[in-house]
Amino acid sequence: MTAIADKTIWLTGASSGIGLALAKQLAKHGAKLILSSRNQQALEQLRDSLPNAAQHQVLALDLSQPEQAVETAAAALQGVDIDILINNAGISQRSLALDTAMPVYRQLMEVDYFAVVALTQWLLPQMVERQQGHIVTVSSVAGKVGTKMRSGYSGAKFAVLGYMDCIRAEMQQHGIVCTSILPGFVHTQIAHNALTGDGSARGKADQDNASGISAEQCAKEIVTAIQKNKAEVVVAKGLSKLAPTLQRWFPGLIRRLTANR
Fold it and tell me: In degrees rounded to 5, what are phi and psi of residue 85?
């Protein structure tokens, strides 16, 4: 079991959605948080609202520029031993492949894949030196099952699961735990903020996410997965929870379902 109390946890994407709910849950468990997103003001308001606010730190980062984000983090976190990294920040997509410009694909990969790799690669040597640590990455059910309107998002989420599988194998000998989280539909602003084919924000909800589990329920299940040192956990309900299992055992069925949605 991984303890949460008194652990230093770096959480990206902390100012909204699943990240916001996670910050509240982790603070209740007694964690010392490093809160990251692009929105400095929102992070400061969040920190001030949490239990033991003085022990939490704000670190604003733009993860669409991963190398620059690492440089900023390295300067700000010098001498800080991070026990758990939660790669939660991400951006989604709602556009057909035929309508999606290459810069949109690049932006999705930068935030959803390369930022995870960059932060993790920077932190892993410190964890290896201490022979302990925990890397948690929030991927998606879309990282197992591709559907319409998400070709760039799903591609990035597939990629990050592959990366996590590899470092899990490599880090086992060093006592470092790697946990992949696969949320299904969660009722957050993710669809509002999703990129369209020209890179603009979609600006509206979709029914799938609106009918999904709450961010609070998702956060609770993520905390439990961290505490239990799980390798991979699907956090969802209904078809989105079943989809990875169906993809494995009944791929033809999943192909028909996704083509006809």
Answer: -105, 125
pLDDT at residue number 214: 94
Are 260 and 248 spatial neighbours (Cβ–Cβ below 8 Å)?
A: no
Catalytic residue annotation: 153
- Determine if the pTM surpasses 0.85: yes
| Mean pLDDT value across residues 91-98 | 97
Q: Has residue 3 been placed in a domain?
A: no
Average pLDDT over residues 210-232: 95
pLDDT (0 to 100) of residue 209:
79
Question: In this structure, is residue 2 part of a structural domain?
Answer: no
Is residue 51 included in any domain, yes or no?
yes
Whole-number average pLDDT of the chain: 96
CATH of the domain at 78: 3.40.50.720
pLDDT at residue 155 greater than cutoff 90: yes
Residues β-bridged to residue 11: 35, 86
Q: Is the pLDDT of residue 141 over 90?
A: yes
Phi/psi-derived region of residue 234, left when phi > 0, alpha when psi is between -120 and 50, beta in every other case: beta
Distance CA 186, CA 41 (A): 25
* DSSP structure string for 17-80: HHHHHHHHHHHHTTPEEEEESS-HHHHHHHHHHSTTGGG-EE----TTSHHHHHHHHHHHTTT-
* 111-134: pLDDT as tens digits: 999 999 999 999 999 999 999 999
Give the residue among 208, 73, 59 at the shortest CA–CA distance from 148: 208
Alpha helical stretches, state H, the chain: 17-28, 40-49, 66-76, 102-109, 115-130, 151-171, 190-193, 207-210, 215-227, 238-249, 251-260
Burial class (CB in 10 A: 0-12, 13-18, 19+), 150: buried
Instruction: Give the tokens for residue 70.
Output: 């690492």
